[in-house]
Acyl-coenzyme A oxidase (Branchiostoma belcheri), 663 residues
Amino acid sequence: MATRMNPDLKKERESASFDPEKITNFLYGGPEKLRRKRELESLALNDPDFQHEDLNFMSREQQYETQLKKGIAMITKMKELNITDFWDQYYYTTAVLVSDGYPMSVHERMFLPTLRGQATEQQKEKWLKMAENYAIVGTYAQTEIGHGTFVRGLETTATFDPKTQEFILNTPTLSASKWWPGGMGKTSNYVVLMAQLYIRGKSYGVHPFMLQIRSLEDHKPMPGVTVGDIGPKFGYDFMDNGFLALNNVRIPRENMLKKYSRVEPDGTYVKPPSTKLTYGTMVLVRAGIVMSSSRVLARAVTIATRYSCVRRQSEMKPGHPEPQVLDYVTQQYKLFPNLAAAYAFWLTGQTMMSVYNKSSSQIEKGDISVLPELHALSAGLKALSSARADVGMEECRLACGGHGYSHASGLPRLYTNSTPAATAEGEHVVLMLQTARYLMKSYTQSVQGEKLAGSVAYLSGVQPVPVAGRTRNMLDLGVLCDAYEHRAARLVREAAEQLRSEMQAGKDQADAWNATSVDLLKAATAHSQYFVVRNFAERLTDTTLDSSVFAVLTRLCQLYALHGLVTNSGDFLEDDYLTGADIRQARRHINTLMAKLRPDAVALVDAFDYPDGILNSILGRYDGNVYEHLLEWAKASPLNITDVHQSYQKYLKPFLQANRAKL
Ligand SMILES: CCCCCCCCCCCCCCCCCC(=O)SCCNC(=O)CCNC(=O)[C@H](O)C(C)(C)COP(=O)(O)OP(=O)(O)OC[C@H]1O[C@@H](n2cnc3c(N)ncnc32)[C@H](O)[C@@H]1OP(=O)(O)O
Ligand SMILES: Cc1cc2nc3c(=O)[nH]c(=O)nc-3n(C[C@H](O)[C@H](O)[C@H](O)COP(=O)(O)OP(=O)(O)OC[C@H]3O[C@@H](n4cnc5c(N)ncnc54)[C@H](O)[C@@H]3O)c2cc1C
C-alpha cells in the first residue's frame, strides 16, 4: 500500500539540486553494484524468516536466542542462494541483522580470517573447511581479564611437551582467564587461543592455537575447560561475550597454527619472518572498522536529518508557523559537519580497504615490507573513524531532542552496538600511539635524508609558513589540504623534538615517550585527519563526476575540512601558518556552506540509500510519518499488553491503599 509522504519531506526532496541516485551510484561503485545491493537487501528485508518482535522489547536471553536463530537462517539462505562475494554478503547480512550482530559474528570476522591467514594448507584442509561450512563454530580468544591492550603481556601458556608431542594449555592466574571473546560464552565449540609459547622453560611469545572448548556431541565444556558468559554490557545484548579458564588442557602439536612459525617434534622453534604477522587478523578488522564507522554515522545522520525536517518547534518569528528544526542554523551546525564526516569516512573506508587488499596480497607473496605502513595507517584511521562516529552518533541523538532518547529512534541501539569499535580491536589512544611510533620513525628517516613513501611522504617536504600579510581563499581545497598537511607535519616534528628533549633531559626512551604521549597523540590524530581530507579532495578529481554531484560533494569536502580546522584552530594558528583572519574567513564559509547545503540535506542522506528496514528508526522513516508510528510502537511495548499491570495488584495497590487509610 502506498503511504502518504510527509509534505515537508516531499518538499525537501523536490528542492534538491541533484539527483541522489547519482551520488548513490558513486558511493556504491556504479549502477550494477547498486542494483545488486538493493536486490540483496530487499531479499533479506522481505523474508518472513527474518521477521520478529522488536529486540528492544526482549530480555537479553531472548535477544541472544532470536539473533542466533536468525543468524543460522541467514547462513543457510546465503548458502542456498550462493551469496559468496564479500560485498554481497555484507549487504545481505546488514539487512538481516540491522544494527545488531549475532553470536557467530566473530566466527566470520576473526575466526575464519585467522584460519585463512595463520594456518598451513594442511591445517586449512582440516579446520577451515569445517569452519566455513559451520560444522564447527569458533571465536578469537586473545583478551584476558588482566590484559587486552598488552598482547605481549598475555599470561595464558602453551607449554610444549616433547614426550607426548602436545602443548599443555593453562591460564595460570585469575588475570590470565580469557575475557570478552564474542560468541565464546555459549555458542562456540572452538577458539583460536592466543597463548605464550614455552619450550623447555623458554618463552617464545604469543602464538595462535586451535582449541576445542566444547563437546561436539552435547556442547558441554571439554575436560579442563571452564567457560561461560561475562554478563550484560553497555550494548551488544545479543552477544555472548565469554570467559575461559584452562587447566592442563592438552592439544596435539599440530594445533599450533603454523603458517609463519612452528615447533618441530624435537622442540626446535622455527621463527616467523615477522613476529607481527600473528597480529594479521586485528589489522584486517581495524581496516574494516574504518568502513563500518562511516556507515553507522551515515545512518545516524540520515535519521536525525529526516527527523529535523519533520519536526517543527518554537517560533522563529512571532506569529509565523513553527519552523522545521533544521532551519535553525545551530541545528545545521549539529548535523551538517556529521553529514560531511560520514561522506569523508565513507571514502576513506574505501581507500583503507583497497590499501589493505593490495598490501595483504603483497604479504601473501612474501613481501612484508608493507606491514609497518599498513599497521600505522589502519591503526590511526580505525581510531579516528570510530571516535568520530561515536561523537557524531551522540550529536545526532541529541539533535533529535527527547525522541532521540527513545529506542524508537534507533539511535541508542546503533550507538551502544557500534561504540565498542572505539575500544575493541585496539583501544583508541593505544592505536593512535602505534601510528605515532611509525611517524616518529619516519620523521627520523626523513631528517636523515631518506625519501618517504605512502601516507608519510609529505613529511619529507613540509609546507613553509607563508609570509605575513597574504590572503588565502579558505574554500580552495588545495589551500585546505596544504593547511592540514602543514599542521600534521609540524605536530609530528614538534613531538619528535619534544621526545628528543625529554631524553636529553635524562629520561630513558620509555619515560620520554610517556612524557610526550599527549603530543604524540595529537600528531597521530592530525596525520590521520590529513589523510581523510586529502583522500576526499582526491576523490573529487574524478572527471567522470556529474557537475551537480561534483558541486555538492565539493561543499561537503569543504565543510569537513573547514569544520575540523575551526574546531582545532589553535593547531593552525600556533605557528602562524594560518592567521586569525583566515579562521574568521573559515567560520564565515561554514555558515555559507551550511546555507547552500540546507536544500540538499535530505537528498544527501537519501543518497546513502538505507531502506527503512535497515535504518530501523521511526524518526528516520523515509515517508516522515513519525508521530503515528511512534504511538503504534509504544502501544506494542510489553508494559502495554494489559491496561493494568500485575505489579499494581502486588505492590502499588496495597501501598496506595495503606497510605490512603492513614489519612
Ligand atoms: C566489512 C567488515 C567490517 C568488519 C568490522 C565491523 C566492526 C563493527 C563494529 C563493532 C566492533 C566490535 C568488534 C568486535 C570484535 C572485537 C575483537 C577484538 O577486540 S580481538 C582483540 C583485539 N586486541 C587488540 O587489538 C589488542 C591491541 N594491542 C595490540 O595490538 C598490541 O599489543 C600493540 C600494537 C598495542 C603493541 O604490540 P607490541 O607487540 O607490544 O608492539 P610494540 O608496541 O612493542 O611495537 C613493536 C613493533 O611492532 C609493530 N606492530 C605492532 N602491531 C603491529 C601490527 N599489527 N602489524 C605490524 N606491525 C605491528 C610496531 O609498529 C612496532 O614496530 P617498530 O616500531 O618496532 O618497527
Ligand atoms: C564489545 C567488545 C567485544 C570484544 N571482543 C573481543 C574478542 O572477540 N576477542 C578478544 O580477544 N577480545 C575482545 N574484546 C577485548 C578488546 O579487544 C579489548 O578490551 C581492547 O583491546 C582494549 O583493551 P583493554 O580492555 O585491555 O583496555 P586497557 O588497555 O585496560 O585500557 C584502559 C585504559 O588504559 C589506557 N592504556 C592502556 N595501555 C596504554 C598504553 N600503552 N599507553 C597509553 N594508554 C594506555 C587506554 O588508553 C585506556 O584509556 C572485546 C571488547 C569489547 C568491548
In short: The pocket of stearoyl-coenzyme A (ligand 1) is lined by residues 90, 106, 109, 140, 142-143, 148-152, 182, 276, 279, 282-283, 285, 288-289, 291-292, 371-372, 375, 418, 420-421, 424-426, 430, 434, 437-438, 441 (CB under 6 Å). The first helix runs from residue 7 to 14. The chain has 21 helices and eleven strands.
